[in-house]
Automatic annotation (TrEMBL):
Species, as recorded: Oribacterium asaccharolyticum ACB7
Record Pfam families: ROK
Annotated family: Belongs to the ROK (NagC/XylR) family.
Superkingdom to which the source organism belongs: Bacteria
Signal peptide per UniProt: none
UniProt protein name: ROK family protein
Coiled-coil stretches noted in the UniProt entry, renumbered to this chain: none
Length: 116
């Protein structure tokens, strides 16, 4: 079984995404426009939709994803709570939890705060 990781960097203009082998080799990268309408509620759904497409194109099964790293433009509390990301319009959200829900129940990734 091959293992893969996903990196997501949420920015005010675009969200940069990549799929990597577990050893760090970049397999695919793309950008998603950051739709900030309605306090940024479309940002993570847009990313999840594109991620699903790219995983399908690469024939990578969800169970082969060992983790998704999400970088956001604002402080993240130890429980994953983002009080505010001004340039996105986000207030009081949990990006990792939302992303997991959007990817579906079969997606095995769990929230974990990584030290800086």
């Amino acid at each position: 079984m091959n293992q893969y990781c996903v990196g997501i960097d949420v920015g005010g203009t675009t969200v940069k995404c990549g799929i990597f082998t577990y050893n760090g080799v970049l397999l695919d990268k793309w950008e998603v426009m950051t739709r900030k309408a309605e306090n940024g509620k479309y940002i993570l759904p847009d990313v999840a939709e594109e991620l699903k497409k790219h995983l399908e194109e690469k024939t990578i099964a969800y169970e082969d994803i060992t983790g998704i790293g999400i970088g956001v433009p604002g402080p993240v509390e130890p429980d994953g709570h983002v009080r505010v990301a001004v340039n996105l319009g986000w207030k009081d959200i949990y990006p990792a939890r939302i992303m997991r829900e959007l990817m579906g129940a079969e997606f095995p990734v769990q929230w974990e705060m990584m030290p800086m």
